[in-house]
Amino acid sequence: MQKMPGTEGNRDVSAQQTIHVAGEWLSAASGATREIIDPADAKPFAIIAEGGTEDADAAIAAARKAFDEGPWPSTPVAERAALLRKVADLLVRDREEIGLLESRDAGKTLEEGRVDVDCVADAFRYFADLVIGEGAGRVVDAGSDDIHSVVVHEPIGVCSMITPWNYPLLQASWKIAPALAAGNTFVIKPSEVTPLTTVALIELLVEAGLPAGVANIVTGPGHTVGARLADHPDVDLVSFTGGLVSGTKVAQAAALGVKKVALELGGKNPNVVFADACATDEGFDTAVDQALNAAFIHSGQVCSAGGRLIIEESVRERFVAELVRRAEKIKLGRGTEDGVECGPLVSQQQREKTEMYVASALEEGAVLRCGGKRPEPSDVRPATGYFYEPTVLDQCHREMKVVREEVFGPVLSVETFRTEDEAVALANDTEYGLAGAVWTTDSGRARRMARRMRHGTIWINDFHPYLPQAEWGGFGKSGVGRELGPAGLAEYREAKHVYENLAPQPVRWFAG
């Protein structure tokens, strides 16, 4: 079989056999295929199977059989943990290859792709350590020596996983690692735009020795494959990461079968900067640098992107002027090229969506400080890619669409405040609640802001880092449930209370 374009090493899965069911790599039942586009030059570089409902049904049936009849759910925890660690080691081995594939598929820089692989390996190790460190259950004091009462946790069953295009490998690992650690089987549908590294990850699971049928993947569109994974009666849990509209449809479909649902639906994340954080040259430099990082890493295609800069009025002009100066120097280009700091948007559709938001903001009174257009062909290589200049929109207000809705592009809106209460009100004035940051040298203020901001993650004097041992998820329309941390493992388990009477006697409730 031929190698998948863009890969090297030991992968030899046919470019058109990207569906994995019951231990076999397959083409789509219909024979349909899809071209994968390199967003840096807008040219196809791979061909995948375009699966459909029939393929999804076969994958779910394989996962159901593997859970009900196979060895994985009853495999000792130590053995499951050992397999997860082996996968982490294989990721380290193939770091350069997979990082390159992620860069080319999603358009991010090569260094971002490498970091993603490192984070995925960390997630597999974390969940391996978490399950191996657990006891045999939580003993419940029933108030009698004759009663032995314990709460144990068991795998939930067959898990459907639907992942987004912006961090395809990372988001897949946040679902796969805890699901396997808990003893589940699964079917995953990566985004049809960026599926290649998820296919590569399934290959590593197979290489690590995971039993056939435990891990299944169907590459295909959301309206067929994704819909079937959400409503199939043999699925016990649906885990979805993506947009609010699609997530709502997934939840509605899953609700008909009363399935457990975990949703991460993005955010509109505030980056609140107080004047005291900018009182020194070092503090000012750091806050500006981190505001750029918050807004423009991966061209702003991040669910936790700090796309709302909320800055104290007294330092707004100086801060924004320096922010604009640096934003204009960000080097765009193919992510594998030396010196490139920002890659393209993932698709023509995403670039057009970004242009729509910028046009809307200008119509509503925003002031364009930089960017706001596609780069000149002479300023970026390749010139045919889906590039868009880092954009700063000043004098924004909360009624603007660009302030309220998730852009998923390199666009930063600027709002101002005068008081701490006003800063809190602005930060919380969103239907989302995924993440937010506050910059201040006042520790009391920092703690107050962290307590009052209604977001699942609060960074103080930092932006974007996460820890696999800490829960990730949001308030409001950012979703339900949590990934990572102990709660991330709990999503893939059912709690069972086992109550044993060691000295049973008649109750004599009825006279009889």
Give the number of DSSP strands.
20
When the domains are counted, the total is: 2
Terminal CA distance: 75 Å
Q: Briefly, what CATH class of the largest domain? A: Alpha Beta
CATH superfamily of the largest domain: Aldehyde Dehydrogenase, Chain A, domain 1
Low-confidence segments, given as residue ranges, are 1-14
* Helicity level: 25-40%
How can the largest sheet be summarized? 7 strands, mixed
Number of helices: 15
pLDDT averaged over residues: 95
CATH topology of the largest domain: Aldehyde Dehydrogenase, Chain A, domain 1
Strand fraction band? 15-25%
Please tell me what the overall shape is. globular
What is the assembly state of the chains in this entry?
single chain
Widest β-sheet, arrangement of strands: 14-15-16-13-12-17-18
Q: Give the second-level CATH assignment, the architecture of the largest domain.
A: 3-Layer(aba) Sandwich
How large is the radius of gyration?
24 Å
Determine the structural class based on helices, strands and strand pairing: alpha/beta
Pathway: Amine and polyamine biosynthesis; betaine biosynthesis via choline pathway; betaine from betaine aldehyde: step 1/1
Organism: Streptomyces aurantiacus JA 4570
Family: Belongs to the aldehyde dehydrogenase family.
InterPro entries: Ald_DH/histidinol_DH, Ald_DH_C, Ald_DH_CS_CYS, Ald_DH_CS_GLU, Ald_DH_N, Aldehyde_DH_dom
